[in-house]
Amino acid sequence: MASSNAQRELQRDLEARANDLSKIQKDIAKNYQVRKKYTIQLGENELVLKELDLLKEDANVFKLIGPVLVKQDLAEANANVRKRIEYISAELKRLDGTIQDLEEKQASKKEAVLKLQQRIQAFQAGKAKA
Question: What does the DSSP 8-state code read for residue 130?
């Protein structure tokens, strides 16, 4: 009787840890999606910066605000794009740290789940011999 309660307890613990692992894996996937979006935005903004660098000082630059194109100073446009690149780069760095932390948690959770599975198997093997 006590052995079946212990086995049920191990099984519940295994399910809880497996659920935790699953949540971490979903978080990792979500963070990779966000990282991919930021990487694309960074590439687009770097391309815009290269295009702005090709322009002469007296060139007309327009910014799309809603359905309207508004004339913008070249220096202001350059500064805005550089700030955007700076922000996106900082977000990418933050996301990389978050992803690394989550992957470390995932590795430790996987290890805990494997150890628990081995305990359950050993418990069942001992029970089968008895």
Answer: -
| Model pTM score | 0.79
DSSP state of 95: H
Q: Output the CA–CA distances (angstroms, integers) from residue 23 to 16, 29, 95, 111, in the order listed.
A: 11, 10, 17, 16
Compute the Cα dihedral for 20, 25, 30, 31 and give only its sign: positive
List b or e across 43-68, with b for residues whose CB sees 16 or more CB atoms inside 10 angstroms.
eebeebbeebeeeeeeeebeeeeeee
Q: Is 73 helix (H, G, I), strand (E, B) or coil?
A: coil
Closest CA to 50 of 92, 82, 73: 82
CA distance 17 to 19: 5
Q: In this structure, which amino acid lies at residue 6?
A: A
Dump pLDDT digits (tens) for 34-72. 999 999 999 999 999 999 999 998 899 999 999 999 999
22 to each of 8, 60, 84, how far by Cα in Å?
21, 52, 34
